[in-house]
């Protein structure tokens, strides 16, 4: 029986150029992790469809009924194409949160096709940034978000920036700068402005759990950042990210 849902699976292997995989051509992937997830975890069977992607190329295949060895996934190509980023470009400048909260924001950013995630070191953050293992964990979270949303290019995770570095690049970076703040302009007004600047990147700044300090908010405002209030209540950073990114991506 064929699965009604088509699962997407990321491979770290580099796939062929889509032009080299016309419809009906055989597809073979040597990837133990993907094979295990497809065969053991998801229990996909012959004639089921699934999507394989590597961050650049996307291949929709129908799994083969031919017996294969462990770690080998075979099928027939139904469609292969080059992945493209969503437009408009969205860059997320997120103050460092608790690990679980930051992971949730990153997951949402991946689902929404954010181009870059830049961790920000502000005054009220409650922890320091981790080492390479933190980046590795975040990259796995991003891939999970991409697989779930069938959004096939993960964001770039950039090295953390200080608040001073953030302020310094605002005037030098193209696009609209938006910071979430309860005392900002109405969300509906922001959407109207966004629709008028849809061809340019959106640079979204979200504070830590305790918010930005008054001094930081003043610095952002002086730098030309538009302060936006999403709701009349105070939202968690995770919820604010879902709301603002979803709204912008719906334009």
Structure summarized in a few sentences:
The protein has 251 residues and is of the alpha/beta class. 32% of the residues lie in helices and 27% in strands. Strands 6, 7, 8, 9, 10, 11 and 12 form a seven-stranded parallel sheet that branches.
Please describe what this structure looks like.
This protein has 251 residues and is α/β, with parallel strands linked by helices. It contains seven helices and twelve strands. The protein has helices spanning 32-41, 99-111, 132-149, 163-170, 187-196, 214-222, 237-249; strands at 7-10, 26-30, 49-53, 57-63, 72-82, 90-95, 116-121, 156-157, 161-162, 176-186, 202-206, 226-229. Strands 6, 7, 8, 9, 10, 11 and 12 form a seven-stranded parallel beta sheet that branches. It has a five-stranded mixed beta sheet with strand order 1-3-4-5-2. A hairpin with a 3-residue loop joins strand 3 and strand 4 (57-63). Helix 2 (99-111) crosses helix 3 (132-149) and helix 2 (99-111) runs parallel beside helix 7. It is elongated and about 65 Å long. The two termini are 38 Å apart. The model has no long low-confidence stretch (mean pLDDT 93).
């Amino acid at each position: 029986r064929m699965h009604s849902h088509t699962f997407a699976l990321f491979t770290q292997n580099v796939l062929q150029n889509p032009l080299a995989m016309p419809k009906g051509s055989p597809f073979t992937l040597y990837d133990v992790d993907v094979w295990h997830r497809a065969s053991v975890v998801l229990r996909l069977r012959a004639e089921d469809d699934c999507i394989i992607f590597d961050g650049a190329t996307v291949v929709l295949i129908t799994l083969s009924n031919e017996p294969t060895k462990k770690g080998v996934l075979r099928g027939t190509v139904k469609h292969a194409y080059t992945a493209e980023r969503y437009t408009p470009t969205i860059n997320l400048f997120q103050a460092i949160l608790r690990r679980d909260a930051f992971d949730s924001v990153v997951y949402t950013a991946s689902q929404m096709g954010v181009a870059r995630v830049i961790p920000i070191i502000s005054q009220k953050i409650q922890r320091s940034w981790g080492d390479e293992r933190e980046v590795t964990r975040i990259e796995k979270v991003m891939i999970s978000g991409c697989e779930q949303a069938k959004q096939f290019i993960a964001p770039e995770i950039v090295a953390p920036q200080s608040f001073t570095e953030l302020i310094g690049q605002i005037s030098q970076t193209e696009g609209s700068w938006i910071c979430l703040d309860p005392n900002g302009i109405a969300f509906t007004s922001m959407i109207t402005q966004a629709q008028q600047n849809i061809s340019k990147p959106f640079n979204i700044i979200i504070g830590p759990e305790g918010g930005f300090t008054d001094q930081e908010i003043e610095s952002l405002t002086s730098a030309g950042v538009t302060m936006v209030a999403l709701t009349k209540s105070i939202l968690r950073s995770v919820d604010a990210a879902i709301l603002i990114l979803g709204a912008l991506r719906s334009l």
